[in-house]
Design brief:
By secondary structure, the protein is mainly alpha-helical. Helices cover 65% and strands 10% of the residues. It has ten helices and three strands, in the order ααααααααββαβα. It has a three-stranded mixed sheet with strand order 1-2-3. The longest helix has 30 residues, at 75-104. Residues 312-326 have low confidence and may be disordered.
């Protein structure tokens, strides 16, 4: 996932949310609608979330240091996880609390045209932001469904913006329904019900985001297609005859670690093996440019050791028996 695509979606969402947040707070001041207050806080939280994503992207560009030899690519995952916490606490829980208070102490809406007008404006602005996120995501998701794209994406920015914008649009519809029912029935209770629904929606989205970013923080392997491309690049059938085992790990959205034990012929010299490893690394980087850190360990394939099956306590595949039998 390109960082530029994610940044464009973040900036579009940030601009929309700041404008919407101001308009919602103005509508709340004139109407007293709890839905407007909850939605205003929601938009303010979303704006803060976009700032967090931009900060994470900036910090992730720092050069590697002796203390952090693999760089700071995972900063983007950390800040995306913070987004889920903000969305859960500031957005979701506040909305549920505000809606609960409104249900307990309902009051009639004043100047109803303010919340209705702002909600219509907000739906248009959020629709623009959501359209931008969809456009940027379509360039990357290929044939994946939207659910698969959110679950498999290694860069967190676009899935976060997609879910935030989707939640914002559904929340606006819920707020409009709550305000509309309050106006039709003359009972402010419905405004509170709409606010609680918004809060529950935000909490659910926050939990999905937290689960996905937690997986990225723990460390995810490369996708299936990427693994196949690496495997095809490693083996040349001449110097490198096979892969005994291989592990991949995303150090960041655009940085992949590849570690593999490769099979070489038993009669190769050290110089020939070193040359074969260099060539294999070059092929990997050509096939998968994000493979920045590559460790290849040569070994002689042993069917006897391979037949023992995977052993997490030993090097998979195992070394070949010593030629002397010792």
């Amino acid at each position: 996932m390109s960082a530029s695509g994610g940044t464009r979606a973040i900036v579009a969402a940030l601009g929309a949310n700041l404008a919407i947040a101001v308009s919602k707070f103005v509508a709340f001041a004139f109407s007293g609608s709890s839905s407007m207050l909850a939605e205003g806080v929601h938009s303010l939280a979303d704006s803060g979330n976009q700032f967090l994503l931009l900060i994470g992207g900036k910090k992730a560009q720092r050069e590697a240091t002796p203390q952090h030899p693999f760089g700071y690519g995972r900063e983007r995952y950390i800040y995306a996880f913070l987004v889920s916490i903000v969305l859960f606490s500031v957005g979701g829980m506040f909305a549920i609390y505000e809606g609960y208070e409104k249900i307990r102490h309902p009051h009639e809406l004043e100047h109803w045209y303010w919340p209705v007008g702002v909600l219509v404006f907000a739906i248009i602005a959020e629709g623009f932001s959501f359209r931008t996120a969809i456009k940027e995501s379509n360039e990357l998701r290929g044939k994946l469904s939207w659910t698969e794209f959110v679950r498999r994406a290694k860069a967190p920015e676009l899935p976060v913006v997609l879910l935030e914008d989707f939640g914002a649009l559904v929340g606006l519809v819920l707020a409009l329904c709550g305000v509309g029912l309050s106006l039709l029935t003359g009972d402010g209770l419905w405004d509170g019900v709409g606010t609680v629904c918004i809060g529950v929606l935000l909490v659910l989205i926050a939990l999905v985001l937290a689960a996905e970013t937690k997986s990225l923080l723990l460390g995810e392997a490369a996708g299936t297609e990427t693994v196949r491309a690496i495997e095809a690049a490693v083996v040349d059938g001449d110097k490198v005859t096979g892969i005994i085992h291989m592990r991949t790990l995303h150090l960041g959205p655009e940085e992949l670690l590849v570690a593999a034990k490769i099979a070489v012929r038993h009669d190769e010299t050290a110089a020939e093996i070193a040359s074969a490893i260099d060539a294999a690394e070059a092929r990997i980087r050509a096939a998968v440019p994000i493979a920045r850190v590559i460790y290849l360990e040569p070994d002689i394939y042993s069917e006897a050791e391979a037949d023992k099956g995977p052993d997490r306590e030993a090097t998979p595949g195992g070394p070949a028996p010593h030629p002397t039998g010792h």
